């Protein structure tokens, strides 16, 4: 006898009805469809049915036995919701629904009169009203006043304590304000939409970006003030980190926070799932903070005409690098004096070159009569750099050092400027035959007009950084590496694409590579957990008639307790459960 599942009915309710029509206990029925043969189902598992049934049952067995379709399985449980919002390795360890699902029955007696089924939404903590009959759900049996745990239910519409009909009790008479009713109607509608939604899934970062965009009142530039006034229910910093992908630990956005935001911002879940966030908004999320800080900085070279004038530094990249133990980002250059800067971890301006520090040493000292080793000691710089410093300051007319002064050759200078404006590298210019020696080249290289031409050229490069064709190439390489399980990092992607690491960074594709690297970490982790799972099953099979000690299992297999504790705690529970049942069986057959 096949029974159809009712619209909005939970899978749990369906199984209860189904087993009852055969006169068997629901656990006996479920035993025939379970996924793990070694794992005996118990009442505690009943609450997992509606969460993610595929982690507990063999879906094809369910469909064959009951006639339910896969689609039925998905939309009578939270599977679709989890698939839409969950990024973690195992759907069943998803945390987006933490503290959202009830373990006790809330019900509407009126509804039970017309349909012998428990809708899935009655399990949702925030839903406390029947929006059809317009009154609050009952939370205990109206006859014996006991609360009813789902795991004790063996018959729909019957109290497991007193066996009386729940459809016969009085409805909850508590008053409901108009606002509360509106909220309940919205929640019920939206939850049902999500439960039935089978479209694309969102990554944690995408979910966070969309929420922020909605909180930003859909303006294309991130505005912290607007977002603050709309008050996100969870921690805003966490949401921002999630959106930027800068969270240390992988954490997802809790669904109840998402829904609270959508309700407040009058956005239906359908709209949320279909929204397209403008790239401009996403970019503004990433660089605005540091970009604005950078704009407030000024050139620190005391000889420069832009010294102390904020907002004149030219950004040259947002690279993140380490330099003598310091984390540097957001590179800038002064296009008047050519000094290069970056922001350190505390977002303070630091010199990337060495002119300012050399200036402090050169200012009150005559170094003409010193030997090279003596100069190197004073400056803390190699000989080549000291020659550059001298050429630079000669040019700036700040400190003229007779020994390295060369007349500027007007023709050569023009040629030099033209060459760098066209993108010729300094290395190539360096080997022009016309140079009589290295110092003469340096004297021209640090001419203020050459410095400016170099900066102009590199900032032009920055503005054409957004190259969708290039981005596509990088992305397809990443996909290929992911498929072939070759480690994804910038050098490898550069090699495989036939480009350079610097170009990947300059064209702002390093984040893209980062996204794929993270995906790879997840895929590899899943693989490792799967292998452990197989080893565990094999170990149990090989010791079918012996008592099992978990310590021994860890010792002889690659199963790693700490690793599982961190990434798959559900598997630890499962091992424990398997061990208990296994040992019980062994004990029973021995005695
Ligand atoms: Zn009702
Ligand atoms: Zn009762
Ligand atoms: Zn300057």
Give the key terms.
single chain; 27 helices; elongated; five-stranded antiparallel sheet; 591 residues; two-stranded antiparallel sheet; 7 strands; mainly alpha; binds zinc ion
Give the secondary structure arrangement, pairings included.
Blueprint: H1 11-22, H2 26-31, H3 59-66, H4 70-75, H5 79-85, H6 109-114, E1 129-130, E2 135-136, H7 178-196, H8 204-215, H9 224-229, H10 236-244, H11 255-264, H12 269-274, H13 279-295, E3 313-317, E4 321-323, E5 326-334, E6 340-343, E7 349-351, H14 355-362, H15 372-379, H16 383-395, H17 410-421, H18 426-430, H19 438-445, H20 448-463, H21 468-484, H22 490-497, H23 501-506, H24 510-542, H25 550-556, H26 561-567, H27 569-590
Antiparallel strand pairs: 1-2, 3-5, 4-5, 5-6, 6-7
Helix pairs in contact: 8-10, 16-19, 17-20, 21-22, 21-24, 26-27
One zinc ion binds next to loops.
């Amino acid at each position: 006898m096949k029974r159809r599942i009712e619209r909005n009915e939970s899978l749990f309710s369906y199984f209860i009805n189904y087993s009852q029509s055969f006169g068997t206990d629901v656990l006996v029925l479920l035993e025939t469809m379970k996924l793990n043969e070694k794992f005996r189902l118990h009442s505690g598992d009943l609450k997992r049915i509606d969460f993610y049934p595929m982690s507990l049952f063999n879906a094809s067995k369910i469909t064959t036995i009951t006639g339910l379709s896969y689609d039925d399985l998905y939309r009578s449980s939270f599977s679709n919701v989890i698939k839409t919002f969950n990024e973690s390795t195992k759907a069943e360890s998803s945390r987006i629904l933490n503290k959202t699902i009830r373990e006790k029955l809330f019900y509407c007696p009126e509804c039970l009169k017309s349909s012998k089924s428990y809708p899935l939404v009655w399990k949702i903590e925030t839903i406390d009203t029947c929006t059809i009959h317009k009154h609050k759900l009952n939370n205990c049996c109206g006859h014996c006043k006991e609360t009813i745990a789902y795991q004790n239910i063996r018959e729909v519409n019957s109290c497991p304590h007193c066996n009386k009909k729940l459809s016969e009790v009085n409805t909850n008479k508590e008053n409901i304000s108009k606002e509360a009713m509106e909220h309940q109607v919205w929640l019920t509608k939206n939850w049902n939409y999500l439960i039935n939604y089978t479209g694309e899934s969102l990554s944690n970062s995408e979910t966070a970006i969309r929420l922020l965009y909605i909180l930003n009142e859909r303006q294309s530039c991130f505005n912290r003030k607007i977002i603050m006034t709309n008050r996100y229910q969870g921690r805003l910093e966490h949401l921002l980190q999630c959106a930027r992908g800068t969270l240390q630990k992988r954490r997802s956005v809790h669904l109840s926070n998402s829904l609270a935001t959508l309700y407040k911002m009058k956005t239906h879940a359908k709209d949320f799932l279909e929204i397209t966030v403008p790239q401009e908004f996403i970019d503004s999320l990433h660089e605005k903070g540091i970009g604005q800080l950078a704009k407030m900085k000024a050139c620190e070279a005391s000889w420069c005409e832009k010294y102390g004038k904020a907002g004149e530094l030219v950004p040259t990249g947002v690279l993140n690098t380490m330099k003598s133990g310091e984390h540097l980002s957001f590179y800038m250059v002064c296009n008047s004096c050519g000094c290069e800067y970056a922001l350190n971890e505390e977002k303070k301006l630091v010199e990337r070159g060495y002119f300012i520090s050399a200036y402090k040493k050169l200012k009150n000292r005559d170094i003409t009569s010193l030997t090279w080793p003596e100069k190197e000691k004073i400056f803390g710089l190699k000989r080549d750099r000291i020659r550059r410093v001298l050429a630079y300051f000669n040019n700036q007319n700040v400190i003229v050092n007779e020994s390295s002064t060369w007349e500027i050759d007007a023709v050569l200078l023009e040629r030099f400027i033209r060459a760098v404006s066209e993108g010729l590298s300094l290395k190539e210019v360096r080997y022009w035959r016309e140079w009589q020696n290295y110092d003469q080249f340096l004297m021209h290289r640090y001419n203020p007009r050459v410095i400016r031409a170099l900066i102009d050229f590199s900032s032009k490069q920055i503005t054409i950084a957004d190259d969708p064709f290039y981005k596509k190439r990088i992305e397809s390489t990443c996909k290929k590496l992911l498929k072939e399980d070759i480690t994804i990092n910038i050098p490898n992607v550069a090699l495989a694409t036939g480009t350079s690491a610097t170009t990947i960074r300059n064209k702002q594709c390093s984040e893209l590579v980062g996204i794929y690297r993270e995906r790879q970490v997840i895929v590899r982790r899943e693989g490792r957990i799967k292998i452990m799972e197989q080893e565990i099953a094999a170990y149990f099979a090989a010791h079918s008639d012996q008592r099992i000690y978990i310590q021994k299992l860890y010792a002889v297999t690659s199963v790693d307790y700490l690793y599982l504790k961190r990434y798959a705690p559900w598997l630890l529970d499962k091992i424990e459960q398997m061990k208990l049942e296994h040992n019980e069986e062994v004990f029973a057959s021995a005695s």
